[in-house]
Specification:
heterodimer, A: 5 strands, 68% helix, B: 21 helices, 20 strands, 25% strand
């Protein structure tokens, strides 16, 4: 390994597994004409492609951030064997190592060249004055920040935009070439078609979205190399870095929890509704009981138990990152266990309705057994409910994480998460002048993800419902 | 001389409602659909004007345009509507609200959903009076009592304080009429007011509307698809097709010598006793392939079938009583014949069908077929018999899984019952079946929602046919369909019977379908069969009181004979 020894945390494995399953599903769906059709409709809607692209960006960051390794220790190969540091880093850390290592002393505002707080500084002649000292990293290349900063930011933005334009042109040329080869048309004709927005798949929308994303990423990168774009927090860590690292936590909590909850909700909900009788009674009593226990208490108890366990078995958890990861997984687990009841109730009611519908009766007139009836007739007809619940829960879970972190039973305090950022911003909001950037950054990133996840789910839901799908 | 005066008098009175060149358009996104396309007609004071047409012909939208209660997406683009001298389309919404209720009122098709379930019916009538006539609560209540009495409700003092769910369908429609008449409107729009009701109740409600029209001297715009009802109530008839009025004439002319081809088609599609043995729409008769091997055991016999549903109450779910849905029914379905099971809603006809198939487990009684006791055979034998006994449901929209391809839907039964083990053979059979029921072969790769109601019913029939059944239980297979589509389906069923020798248990409430289609008929009333026999005999000479009542309630309509030049 070039950088070091790979490390697989449990959540990493689960995420890779999930990605693998999704790829497998699409590979399967692409070969079936009637399964391919709805997904083609998704990529033909404008809202669909925009949200896919934005979500892909988030997911890519999440995946890059899930490739962990122990970095090689510099100058360690004196006696031949390579030494690895005990610290766990991710590939994403490597890419953004600049802003990761650019820590300041304490708070600084976005694009600031000076610290946010005044400090007593001793001048060369021995006198002490209180002033805002220069940052060690942010805007350090400027001789006179007051005069040069505005022009410098603009210059960097233009550099970023030019780079974005170049990359965009290269990508679009490649795309048009590819399309012209596939459609067996001239390159010029294909380009004209896209520019007019006359193509089947909204390539023009894709091109515009790509341009915007590239501009945001590359301009941001130019700025981030010289400034703290979103400022720094109390211990001088870059807020942009924190917000980006939080993406993985958000994605993991959102997806893994939902995934853990789905099997419970779907199997129990359908069983209760379909078989009725004593099965229904048992399942109903189970979720009524579970619902009557305050969720927060249950989670607190579970997390505290885990803490005790980890304290007793310290040797099993080699690093802080592993401990934090274990706690994240456990949080997903316990959130999943407490949140399946709502969906289960909905699915039970839906199954009760569906089992009396004529097409289920027709199936039983053919002697179709319960397993097949459930898988063929009942489950596909309530997938829209599942899908909507997943998306609504996804945003709800990201928010629940923030609430739980607030009372210290959420993710590990050492782990970057939007919840932890909001939690620390609580104190910052009380400062005068106010430190707003931590809160704003986490809210912005959370908002974008939840918004596009919702848009995406809307498009998918419409596409999956054959009754409203356009033929 | 007197005749001249009367015609003169008619010319002087201006019509109560005058609609000129009305066009209503639905806009969804960039798509524009013209639903009402240049409709003009006049309704005179005190007369009944019937608007007839199949579903989707734009008759309801014409009515909703008149009272200005169109759905969001719809818009009147051209035309004018005059009530007396008032131009309704240019009135501000505020004045229009005064017109609704006191000038025009409306009764809807579905009495179950038109009443507010959490408010007492008396209050719902009084509400209109307080709003439009400015009555006090006490006056309004008194007037509500009078109105309930006027619509022939037997005990108004009791009914006024009941909720909608405590009333039967016919009672609810009476209450709806009472609300509509509260302010003595000049025009009553009745949008399929009896379609959801049983035929005996329909007859009473129609009588009531007629009686009230005399009493209040109001005009009625009557919207329906049922030509029998039209003949009974209308003075003038207008036939709508695809948003246009294709024919307008008086009752006498329309029912003796309609002018337009489409009107003739409507009459041709009507099933009737006189048309027995002839196809309604199809060009030729399919010769009956008589199966000689039929023996006595091929007859399905139902003996004293009972299906009781327990009523459970309390925490321990103790059974406190039974709903006797089917209470001792005996039937015989001979091979290659059609037996009709007739009765009103709630009489237990559907449950009989489901009980025979054991989709509902019978409480007691016997079902024998091929010397097998269907009611008690084991799982494996029952699976085998499922290939012989199949069912087609009433609602073509809910009887197919919307998420399955038509091909898979038809194939499902063959797979489950192991009719054809080879995948290729099954696929070939699906295509063959689609052709047999008159659908194109590429239908198997489409979803059910891409088909119309009639086409869906064809798919359902193909699905039942897939396992080569000997008996198909048809549970009101045409009652959700338009007459012309109903005629196609009846033709198809006839053809299949002739070709394959299938027998049908045809469950229906439509007497004219029975007269046209069935060989034997059994009349069901409150879970029991009250009369059974050959169709001609039962329909011409009913013995039981209930059968007599039922037959008397059916609107009489003899389709005119077309003399082709």
């Amino acid at each position: 390994m070039m950088f070091g020894k790979p490390v697989f945390l449990i959540t990493d494995v689960l995420i890779f597994f999930l990605v693998f399953v999704i790829i497998l599903f699409f590979a399967y769906a692409m070969r079936k004409p009637h399964l391919r059709k709805p997904w083609r409709q998704v990529v033909r809607s404008k809202a669909g492609v925009i949200s896919i692209m934005v979500l892909m960006l988030y997911v890519c960051i999440g995946i890059l951030d899930s490739m962990h390794f122990n970095p090689k220790v510099e100058n360690s190969s004196k006696d031949g064997d390579i030494q690895y540091s005990g610290e766990i880093q991710s590939v994403f850390d490597l890419i953004v190592s600049d802003i990761r290592n650019s820590t300041e002393k304490t708070y600084s505002a976005p694009f600031a060249a000076y610290l946010f707080a005044k400090e007593t500084v001793q001048l060369e002649d021995g006198t002490k004055i209180r002033e805002h000292p220069r940052l060690t990293w942010g805007g350090a290349h400027l001789a006179n920040p007051e005069l040069e900063k505005g022009a410098d930011i603009l210059r960097l933005a233009i550099t970023g935009l030019v780079k974005a334009l170049v990359v965009w042109l290269v990508l679009m040329t490649l795309l048009c070439l590819l399309l012209s080869v596939r459609a067996k048309k001239s390159f010029f004709a294909v380009t004209k078609n896209i520019a007019k927005g006359a193509s089947d798949i909204p390539w023009r929308t894709i091109a515009v979205t790509l341009a915007v994303l590239l501009a945001v990423i590359l301009v941001g990168a130019e700025w981030a190399a010289k400034y703290h774009v979103l400022g720094t927090d109390k211990v001088g860590e870059d807020v942009l870095y924190q917000a980006l690292k939080s993406i993985r936590t958000g994605v993991v909590i959102g997806t893994l929890t939902t995934l853990l909850m789905l099997p419970f909700a779907i199997t129990l909900g359908i069983m209760a509704g379909y078989f009725r009788g004593w099965v229904d009674d048992v399942i109903q009593y189970l979720y009524t009981t579970l619902n009557s226990i305050p969720g927060v208490l249950l989670i607190a108890a579970a997390v505290l138990m885990l803490n005790v366990y980890m304290g007793k078995h310290a040797e099993d958890f080699a690093s802080l990152t592993e401990r934090a990861d274990m706690r994240l997984l456990f949080l997903c687990l316990i959130l999943g266990l407490t949140s399946w009841t709502g969906l289960c109730r909905l699915l039970r009611a839906e199954t009760l309705k569906l089992r009396e519908v004529d097409f289920v009766q027709a199936a039983s007139a053919f002697g179709v057994g319960p397993t097949q009836t459930i898988f063929r007739h009942i489950m596909p007809n309530m997938m829209h409910i599942v899908l909507i619940t997943i998306v609504l829960d996804f945003s709800g879970l990201v928010l629940a994480e923030a609430v739980l972190s607030y009372i210290n039973i959420g993710v590990d305090p050492t782990m970057n998460s939007w919840g932890n950022m909001i939690n620390s911003a609580r104190l910052e909001m009380a400062r005068e002048p106010v430190v707003w950037w931590s809160l704003a950054a986490s809210l912005f990133f959370m908002f974008t993800m939840v918004l596009f996840a919702n848009l995406f789910a809307d498009v998918v839901r419409d596409a999956l419902d054959p009754r409203i799908a356009k033929s | 001389m007197t005749e001249n005066i009367s015609t003169l008098g008619k010319q002087i009175t201006s019509p109560l409602l005058r609609i000129e060149n009305l066009t209503t358009v639905f806009e969804t996104g960039s798509r524009k659909v013209t639903v009402v396309d240049g409709v003009s007609f006049e309704v005179n004071e005190g007369e009944t004007f019937a608007l007839v047409g199949e579903s989707g012909s734009g008759k309801s939208i014409t009515a909703l345009s008149t009272i200005r209660l169109l759905p969001e997406a719809a818009r009147v683009t051209t035309g004018s509507i005059y009530l007396g001298n008032q131009d309704l389309l240019s009135l501000p919404e505020r004045d229009m609200r005064n017109i609704r209720g006191s000038g025009i009122s409306m009764i809807f098709q579905e009495p179950m959903t038109s009443l507010n379930p959490v408010t007492k019916v008396g209050k719902q009538i009084a509400e209109v009076l307080i709003r439009h006539k400015g009555m006090s609560k006490l006056q309004a209540r008194q007037r509500a009592l009078d109105l309930l009495d006027a619509v022939n409700i037997k005990n108004p003092a009791h009914t006024i304080d009941t909720y909608a769910h405590e009333l039967s369908g016919g009672m609810k429609q009476r209450v709806m009429i009472a609300i509509a008449l509260a302010c003595e409107p000049k025009l009553l729009i009745a949008d399929e007011p009896t379609t959801a009701l049983d035929v005996t109740i329909q007859a009473r409600v129609l009588d009531l509307i007629n009686e009230l029209q005399q009493k209040f001297k109001m005009a009625i715009l009557f919207i329906t698809h049922d030509l029998g009802v039209v003949k009974q109530v209308a003075d003038h008839v207008a036939v709508m097709k695809q948003g246009r009025i294709v024919e307008q004439s008086t009752n006498e002319v329309f029912f003796s010598n309609p002018q337009h081809d489409y009107s003739w088609e409507l009459f041709a599609a009507l099933p009737a006793m006189e048309k027995r043995g002839k196809p309604l729409l199809a060009a030729s008769v399919v010769e009956k392939v008589v199966d000689q091997k039929n023996t006595d055991k091929d007859t399905l016999r139902v003996k004293d079938l009972k299906v009781h549903f327990p009523i459970k109450k309390g925490i321990l779910k103790r059974t406190v009583g039974h709903v006797k849905a089917v209470d001792g029914v005996s039937l015989e379905i001979p091979p290659g014949k059609t037996v009709a099971l007739v009765g009103e809603s709630g009489s237990g006809k559907t449950t009989v069908g489901k009980g025979i198939l054991r989709l509902v487990q019978p409480t007691s009684g016997e079902v024998t077929y091929l010397d097998l006791p269907i009611h008690e055979i084991g799982k494996q034998d029952l699976l085998e018999q499922r290939t012989n006994l199949q069912i087609v449901f009433q609602d073509p929209y809910s009887s197919m899984n919307p998420r399955m391809l038509v091909g898979d839907i038809i194939e499902e039964g063959m797979k489950a019952l192991n009719v054809l083990k080879d995948t290729q053979a099954r696929k070939a059979r699906v295509l063959e079946l689609l052709e047999q029921v008159g659908l194109s072969k590429d239908a198997h790769l489409r979803y059910p929602h891409e088909f119309s109601g009639g086409q869906r019913q064809r798919i359902c029939i193909a699905r039942a046919l897939a396992v080569n059944p000997k008996i198909i239980i048809c549970d009101e297979p045409t009652s959700a369909l338009d007459v012309s589509v109903q005629a196609q389906i009846l033709d198809l069923l006839n053809e299949l019977q002739a070709r394959l020798g299938i027998s049908y248990l045809f469950i229906t409430h439509n007497m004219s379908v029975v007269a046209y289609f069935a060989d034997r008929v059994a009349v069901m009333y409150q879970g029991k069969i009250v009369e059974e026999g050959e169709v001609e005999q039962v329909l011409t000479d009913p013995q039981h009181e209930y059968t007599k009542k039922l037959l008397a309630a059916v609107p009489k309509l003899v389709p005119p004979e077309r003399i082709l030049a």
